[in-house]
Amino acid sequence: MTRYTLVIGIDPDVERNGVAELHTSTRKLDVEALGFADTVERLFTCRKREAEAGGRILVAVEAGWLNESNWHLSRRDTLRSAAAKGNAVGRNHETGRKLAEMCRWLGLELRLVKPLALHLGGSPMWKGKDGKITQPELETVTGQRLGRTNQEQRDAALLAWTAAGLPLRLVGERKGGGR
Prior knowledge:
By secondary structure, the chain is of the alpha/beta class. The chain has 4 helices and 7 strands, in the order βββαβαβββαα. It has a 5-stranded mixed sheet with strand order 3-2-1-4-5. Strands 6-7 form a two-stranded antiparallel ribbon. Helix 1 runs parallel beside helix 2. The chain is globular and about 55 Å long.
């Protein structure tokens, strides 16, 4: 397996991308929500910093467009709400595609990653809404206090963590129970 000094996870979003920098030697995570231009600037800055230090970067971008289906409809959706959901999903996907294009242009090693599974054997993997990871769960997985994060930031952190090949064990957690 190739050794990376920095793994960057990006959860694309039209408004603010979740961006996580994982420094592999220390497992230190830095997470932020950044607009498109700030995300590209961060990639450029990380590339320059790691090149000067002799490091290697991997950028993992969540690529929902790789899923066979992207339907997020409910029985209560009207034609208007279904169209709005489709528009929002398409815009997020295009943001991800453009970020991937910028990574390639910058010469960064890129991995497009299908969204991580939210259910295992019919049960949610995480305790958050729709089976997403919560702040306390992420802090347990990483062993770090990250401060307040939004869902895109947590997803980006989880993406960087798994792209680096780090374990997803919840120490002290039991399914359906507390710590």
